[in-house]
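Justification of resources, computational component.

The compute hours requested in this renewal are based largely on the per-chain cost of generating structure records like the one below. Each record pairs the submitted sequence with a full structure-token output. That output is archived, and it is also reused by downstream analysis tasks.
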Amino acid sequence: MEKFTRICRLHRLLLGHQHPVSHRTIVDSLQCSRATINRVIEELRNLTCDPIPYDRRRKGYHYLHPERHKTDLPFLFFTAEELNALLVIDRYLETLETGVLNEALAPLRSRVQALLGGHGESDGEELRRCIRILPLGQRGKPGRWFSLCAEAVLQQRRLSIDYHSRGSDRRETREVSPQRLSHYRDNWYLDAWCHSREELRCFAVERILQAELLEQPAQAISDPELDAHYAASYGIFAGPAQTVAQLRFSAECARWVADEHWHPQQRGTWLPDGRYQLEIPYGNPTELIMDILKHGPDVEVIAPPELRTAVITRLKSALEKYS
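The structure output for this chain reads:
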């Protein structure tokens, strides 16, 4: 692994300099002896089929064909640590259950595993055993239409979808202009302009029962408009934030909550007694109430009154189940 990493670093050093690189600079960068540097240079010559000549006038080594090596064999010039990081990313992507991504990344996975194995590193199977990624709240695979949704987003074309809404328990056919694919709490959503409702909507991809890619171009919505609709309020519920929740957490719970990201515009304040107050903008309170309830007695809703009342009502209803 050490030899492999030195070869990678020398390759980057040569590409990163417009002028020949001196022997002393290479020694300082790779932190090894002059004899080792000579061996590394020879290894790199064999790998790249480039003579890497020494320029006596400018006293340094350089690639004879630097432009060729900026794109030639890119995976060869990752360090072992970077290759391992790629496998960790690949392991994470496997948990997204997209099918099409796993299939598309299979050649990359095989190439990285082969490179690691050839340099004495643990293979992909060993990494899979050592790393666990546990999806929480995943409702199932996004279904066979995920790839078509992605294609529609990237090509900016309309989709006709047969959609079964959980909220209304109704099945409808809609024509939509896809804008983005969002991965939220281990589930995929299609953010799109719905031509039937004439407004922006959010569709759970796993609830798409049928889809057809249409020839018409999608109606374009600007990023600021999309962000204002989908990112202003709390959670998956879109729309503008209408008010700000003030939540006060116990000192014990605060050690975790203070480091958590609840909303892009959240504001947190440490109180003198060690408690932590969190302010979160929201519109539809449904998801926020669920997240408040999971903290039980460690959180109190300070404001607004309607949110506090809604949480009290839910807690009383839960208590009645056990009385």
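The two ends are 64 Å apart (CA to CA). DSSP finds twelve helices and eleven strands in the chain.
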